[in-house]
Every structure is written in structure tokens, then in C-alpha cells.
Design brief:
Length: 173
């Protein structure tokens, strides 16, 4: 049985098999056992969660890459955590050559810098490319439960552009 994270809360996705799956208010779909349905759900933008996957800690679906304002990410898990990777996918445009900026624990580029302000997003060439960001934190750094994460670009794309952000890591109680 697979557990998946959907791009939207309370979303219903109908698979090619005719089976439909609904996500809860936390974007979670449970009890998917049909392999074809799992592939259909992944094709619809879902991410498989589980023992062989790192924990999904935060998301930001449709982050605005033409804004230098703070964009808070939505927490998915609770407890102390350590970030192991941040992935940006599903861009709405073919390339973001000018977009640059980082991730922080405080608004206004304050707190701990998780990804530096110099991070560029040129690797996002279309909706089917993923970009794993360079972390600027020590691999051993553990954040307390309730820590917020903000995307704050230094340089906007220069035109309408969105992408989805997923923060993965380990959770400690």
C-alpha cells in the first residue's frame, strides 16, 4: 500500500483504471495498492511517501518566481527535523535565467540561511525538470518543531513564473 502527497488538499484524482482517490486536508492519499494507479497519481503531480522515501517536511505549490517578497512554505510534518534536500519542480515556464534567491528560517532573509541568496534556477527548463538546490546549512543542523521556512528571491524571473517546492529530511521526536 502506498501513501502519496498530492499538490492540493481535498483533491480528487481519477486514474485510468477508473479508481478515484481523494486527498485529505493535509494533501495525503492513503491505501493505494494498484501499481497503475500509483503511476497515474505520480503523473498527476503526486509524490510517493514511505519507508524508502525521505520524509516530506514542507511544500510550496505554485511558488511565485517573479516576486521578491517572502513566501512561507507549508509544513507537512511535525517534530524536530533535519533538512536533507530541497527540490523545485513543475515550472510554468521554459527557463528561469534571471531568478535567484534563497531559503531562510525568518522573514526578510533573516534567521538561518538554508539555501543562499545566490542560488540560481536556470536548471528549471520545463515542467518535467527538477532542480535539487545547494544547501547552505551544516548536514548535522537540527531545527526545532515549529520552525518556519521562507523562500525569498533576490532577483525575480522578470515575468510570470511559478514552480513547486518540496523540502525533504529526517524527523526526530
Amino acid at each position: 500500500m502506498a501513501i502519496l502527497y498530492t499538490p492540493q488538499a481535498n483533491q480528487t484524482i481519477v486514474c485510468s483504471s477508473g479508481n478515484s482517490y481523494g486527498s485529505d486536508e493535509n494533501h495525503i492519499v492513503v491505501n493505494v495498492s494498484n501499481t497503475t494507479d500509483i503511476q497515474d497519481l505520480i503523473g498527476a503531480g503526486c509524490i510517493v511517501l514511505g519507508a524508502n522515501q525521505p520524509n516530506l517536511l514542507f511544500t510550496k505549490i505554485g511558488a511565485n518566481f517573479n516576486s521578491t517578497g517572502d513566501q512561507i512554505l507549508t509544513p507537512v510534518a511535525q517534530g524536530k527535523f533535519r533538512i536533507t534536500k530541497i527540490v523545485v519542480v513543475n515550472t510554468s515556464v521554459n527557463g528561469m535565467p534571471t531568478a535567484a534567491g534563497g531559503f531562510y528560517t525568518g522573514a526578510g532573509k533573516t534567521g538561518t540561511t538554508i539555501v543562499s541568496a545566490g542560488q540560481v534556477y536556470t536548471g528549471l527548463t520545463n515542467a518535467l525538470t527538477a532542480l535539487e538546490l545547494t544547501l547552505a546549512i551544516a548536514a548535522s543542523l537540527v531545527f526545532v518543531s515549529g520552525t518556519s521556512i521562507y523562500l525569498s528571491l533576490s532577483t525575480p524571473k522578470g515575468g510570470a513564473a511559478t514552480a513547486d517546492i518540496y523540502v525533504f529530511g529526517e524527523i526526530y521526536d
